[in-house]
Amino acid sequence: MTKKVSVAEIRLHGTQDDVWIVVNGEVFDLTEFAPEHPGGEEIIYKYAGRDASTSYNEIHSPSLIKKSLPASCHIGTLDTTTIDAAWKDQEKDTNTKPNAATDAASEPKAKPDLDGIINLNDFERVAENFLAPKPWAVIHTGSNDNITRDANNTFLNRIWLRPEVMRKVGHINTRQTLFGCDLSFPIYIAPTGGSKLGGAEGEITLARAAAKTGIVQCFATPSSYPHLEILEATEKHAFYQLYVNKERSKSEAAIREAIATDKIKALFVTVDVPVISKREEDERVASNSGPGQKRDKKGAGFARLASSFIDPNVCWDDIKWLRGILGDIPIVVKGIQRASDAKMALDAGCDGIVISNHGGRAADGAPPAILTLLEVNKICPEVLTGMKVLIDGGFRRGSDVVKAICLGASAVGFGRPLLYSLGYGQEGVEHAINSKFPYLDSFGPT
């Protein structure tokens, strides 16, 4: 029988040396886990002896905590008959969002009808108005001055198309095969950590929308939902994005668990953030959120706190280690920002690369992704024929996809725009994906 735990008993465990927290009515002992928490220990210490449900639910799925912790960490359920006024006041203070008073004073806004959303920029404008400040900042921010984030898109606009005419384009085939997956169009859902910040059920919704529209999701290591839950919601295939853990055994265990489902068709190992960048928009929101997110000389914010486990010593020799785990499953290096590294990936036996600067979240001042693709095309075109070359960063329209394909890319990843579309649920994500199809059709064979 599950133990009922009183508020008085929970309060006795409110120090860094003895941490109990409440999540969705369940009581957990996180004393041993706190220093290993991927999101940093400070956020756990903030809620020691308290209810952390609202903060937890912003990012994580309800099931993640139970599935991630040993059963011994589950103390029991909160005895609601013992809740007193002080507990209610404390819960209100710790779980109220900074803009709650403003929101309460204003009239609730109605989102525009989905039929009125005609492109991905529309989704972004809606998200800016309807997401809370914290999720908006986490998703929207790049690093430092956002130079690379913004250049990703503006440089796409500097590339001109040279349309051919009179080429019999009555029948068009836009399908693409990518690592054994048959795609309706040469696009895929790029990995984004904590997708639940965008709304709905995060990666679960993205998986279902991908299946309905005939593309594939690449889900991230720091996902909102347990990886197996995402794969259960995945109809056929998925790609798995890996941040290599400092404790390599944890990465190996996660990979083996995922590939045992037979749904993982490629592993994308991210290499462009050995050290997390300074994401100032995120940090500003964190600094206004009260105690609980410790700031050091390098900053604060969701990304920095959620990345403490990443191994900064990943090198080309690690491809052999991954190959030993994956066997014939393709290995894709994500985060290529120069032609010479693209060539090194080919020489190392990788099956593909993603030309990416982390959506402008890695080194600010790194070249726009499309410019790196052009560099690869000019300097080492053998890469384009020797492996799959993917790209992400700044893509918003079907014409952007056409430009990448013309320069040699096999497929294009979409990240932020689909997180913005999560505010409309699965229907919104499908609408976002489908919004690019007519534009691709209009360009004929590619």
Automatic annotation (TrEMBL):
Keywords: Oxidoreductase. Gene3D superfamilies: Aldolase class I, Cytochrome b5-like heme/steroid binding domain. It comes from Fusarium beomiforme. One of its GO terms (molecular function) is oxidoreductase activity. Pfam families: Cyt-b5, FMN_dh. PROSITE patterns: CYTOCHROME_B5_2, FMN_HYDROXY_ACID_DH_2. This is CYB2-lactate dehydrogenase cytochrome b2. Residues 112-446 form the FMN hydroxy acid dehydrogenase domain. InterPro entries: Aldolase_TIM (IPR013785), Cyt_B5-like_heme/steroid-bd (IPR001199), Cyt_B5-like_heme/steroid_sf (IPR036400), FMN-dep_DH (IPR000262), FMN_HAD (IPR037396). The keyword rRNA-binding does not apply. Residues 2-79 form the Cytochrome b5 heme-binding domain. Residues 89-113, 280-299 are annotated as: Disordered. Its cofactor is FMN. It comes from the Eukaryota. The keyword Oxidoreductase applies.
